[in-house]
């Protein structure tokens, strides 16, 4: 893919200056919006504290307390076992999970995170903004903290969504190194990313991808809408956290915006329905294939965000709720008048 590099240093001050002076429509006052403060239930601690000599009664107690979520947690995480082996009773599977050296060690590391009061405050604020923008929609009933056995970062069960704390131990955790988790992923496995990860996963569930045609443009715009929502709901969270980029990578995206867009147009990739073209622009990677190695992985999500932001800035009568109902990326692109300049 062709990529222009000649004008990077010229673009940066223009973009920064324009951004600094512009009106941010997401700066809204939500102090009057009432929501229940988020209190995270520590299912991780309850699970590892159960009396394993009374498995039936302990499981029933947790089922009564955590309802459908406990059933999903058991069926999809705790009692799955090895698919290549003969099925084993759930009581046995849970005991194996609790006695496993790695699972117990990871749980001990989770406890070093301490209480989750900062996360509770961040999620409470995100709930308040969500209620402001989407008053007819229902907030999550509860937030649980779990040990998910290194399977899923966030788990949805009914009207509850849980955070798997073993994904947030810190970038240098020995467990991530032992699992050979790539550095470009483990760098975000820290407590700082919990709120942003929760909101992103929540918004994916709340507003699933529904484009009539799965092509590069529709997928980038969808990912951009999710990022725009994250910006709307987590007003105090830095862009480096929301986008999952380092400051250097964000600076590169700002300086290279026109070049990235020109490359997509010139190579006729914008309307490509190739899964490879789509994935290389929005999936995790050390950098975005087709762009210079200085680019972050998932650079297409940032382009999508810029398109969505341009659309919302030029169409202030469009609410966030209305934005999320537009499933045609071409409509958003056309009305955004998006055309980054070198």
Précis, in short:
With 342 residues, the chain is mainly α.
Care to describe what's here?
It is a single chain. This protein is mostly helical. It has two domains: 145 residues, no CATH class; 166 residues, no CATH class. Strands 1-2-4-3 form a four-stranded mixed sheet, with helices on both faces. α3 crosses α4, α10 packs across α14 and α14 packs across α16. The N terminus is likely disordered.
CA distance, first residue to last residue: 18 Å
The shape, in one word, is: globular
Q: Which structural class should the secondary elements be placed in?
A: mainly alpha
Helix content: 40-55%
Number of domains: 2
Q: How many strands appear in the DSSP assignment?
A: 4
Succession of helices and strands: HEHHHHHEEEHHHHHHHHHH
Numbering strands along the chain, what is their spatial order in the largest sheet?
1-2-4-3
How many helices in DSSP terms?
Answer: 16
Question: Main β-sheet: number of strands, strand sense, barrel status?
Answer: 4 strands, mixed
What's the multimeric state? Answer: single chain
């Amino acid at each position: 893919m062709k990529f222009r590099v000649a004008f990077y240093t010229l673009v940066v001050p223009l973009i920064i200056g324009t951004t600094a002076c512009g009106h941010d429509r997401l700066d809204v006052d939500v102090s009057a919006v009432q929501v229940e403060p988020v209190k995270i239930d520590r299912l991780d601690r309850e699970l590892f504290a159960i009396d394993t000599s009374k498995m039936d009664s302990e499981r029933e107690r947790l089922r009564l307390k955590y309802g459908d979520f406990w059933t999903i947690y058991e069926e999809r995480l705790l009692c799955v076992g090895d698919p290549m082996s003969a099925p084993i009773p759930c009581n046995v599977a849970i005991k194996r999970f609790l006695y496993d050296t790695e699972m117990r060690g990871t749980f001990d590391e989770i406890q070093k995170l301490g209480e989750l009061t900062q996360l509770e405050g961040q999620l409470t604020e995100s709930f308040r903004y969500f209620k402001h923008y989407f008053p007819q929609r229902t907030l999550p009933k509860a937030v649980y903290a779990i040990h998910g056995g290194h399977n899923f970062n966030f788990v949805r069960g009914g009207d509850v969504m849980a955070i798997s704390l073993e994904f947030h131990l810190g970038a240098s955790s020995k467990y991530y190194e032992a699992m050979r988790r790539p550095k470009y992923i483990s760098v975000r496995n820290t407590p700082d990313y919990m709120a942003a990860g929760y909101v992103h996963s929540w918004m994916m569930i709340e507003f699933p991808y529904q484009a009539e045609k799965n092509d590069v443009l529709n997928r980038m715009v969808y990912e951009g809408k999710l990022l725009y929502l994250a910006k709307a709901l987590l007003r105090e969270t830095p862009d480096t956290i929301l986008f999952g980029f380092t400051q250097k990578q964000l600076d590169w995206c700002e300086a290279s915006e026109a070049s990235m867009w020109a490359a997509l147009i010139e190579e006729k990739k914008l309307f490509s329905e190739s899964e490879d073209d789509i994935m290389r622009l929005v999936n995790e990677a050390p950098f975005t294939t087709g762009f210079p190695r200085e680019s972050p992985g998932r650079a297409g999500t940032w382009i999508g965000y810029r398109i969505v932001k341009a659309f919302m800035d030029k169409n202030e009568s469009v609410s966030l709720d209305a934005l999320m109902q537009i499933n045609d990326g071409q409509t958003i692109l056309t009305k955004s008048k998006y055309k980054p300049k070198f």
